[in-house]
Amino acid sequence: MHRYLIESPHSGEECLELVSQVIAAGYATRFDWGCKAGVHKGWIVIDAEDEHQALLVVPALVRPKAAIVRLNKFSAEDIERLHKNEGDAR
To answer: How many structural domains comprise the chain?
Structure first.
């Protein structure tokens, strides 16, 4: 499993229908919304096998506009190794 951040932009006209579809799909409490601040986007972090599976949480209404980022975490050892490799490249 991988973690993905999905950003779901939509217009003010699409807003109510999109939120209704998200609620119907059972993801109401998983999404964060910027709509009341005038930023018509929703965000969710989800665990999924792949990018395609992760995008299925976004209603078809706005799925083509969605942006998806596979997330990762770095350990202290990872950072140290990255810095060492950076130094070797110089």
So the answer is: 1
